[in-house]
TrEMBL record:
Organism: Acrocarpospora corrugata
Identification of the protein by name: STAS domain-containing protein
Segments passing through the bilayer: none
SUPFAM superfamilies per UniProt: SpoIIaa-like (SSF52091)
Lineage: Bacteria, Bacillati, Actinomycetota, Actinomycetes, Streptosporangiales
InterPro entries named among the record's database cross-references: STAS_dom (IPR002645), STAS_dom_sf (IPR036513)
Domain STAS: 1-91
GO molecular function: anti-sigma factor antagonist activity
Amino acid sequence: MTPAGEVDLVGKPLLYGCVRAALRTHHEGLLVIELSAVTFMDAQGLSALVLSRRHAVRHQRALALAGVPDAVRRLLQITALSSSFTLMAWP
């Protein structure tokens, strides 16, 4: 899945809802959230990622982040969340 634009208070339920739907419909394999089109992410966006990861773990699924923009990567590092996610390189 590839969210785009701002992931904030408005985007949080959209992202989390998409992850939940993907986990319901695709029962196997790695779920990758490709973030290269994200232009802004705040604490609400980070919360959506954390909730998504927890939901994936509850359903015994792996979740990875790919194409993470530098600003989002810094947020993950500042909040000590970078070690909670598998970060993948993206072309």
